[in-house]
Design brief:
Largest sheet: 2 strands, antiparallel
Shape: globular
Strand order of the largest sheet: 1-2
Low-confidence stretches: none
Mean pLDDT: 83
Length: about 80
């Protein structure tokens, strides 16, 4: 779970620091590997996916703490994508 939180945090920092002189990168074009099965989802999908769907893709259940961290990171990601 820590790896996931660090990954989302890094992505939000990367999206914030994108230069304005370039064409913006679409969140639907950035793919992230999820779980050990080789699944990839876009950052846009990650900001909209439910916890149950994420658990299915990831192949493991999240505890209460993991679910809270996931939702907080998801809200931060949504805020950074829209702003």
């Amino acid at each position: 779970m820590k790896k996931f939180f660090v990954l989302v945090w890094g992505l939000t920092a990367m999206l914030e620091s994108v230069a304005t002189g370039r064409e913006p990168i679409k969140a639907s074009e950035i793919l992230l590997p999820i779980g050990n099965h080789g699944y990839q989802i876009s950052v846009l999908t990650l900001s909209q996916i439910s916890i149950r769907d994420f658990e299915t893709l990831n192949g493991s259940q999240l505890g209460l703490n993991g679910k809270v961290v996931f939702k907080l990171a998801q809200k931060k990601l949504k805020k950074n994508l829209s702003g």
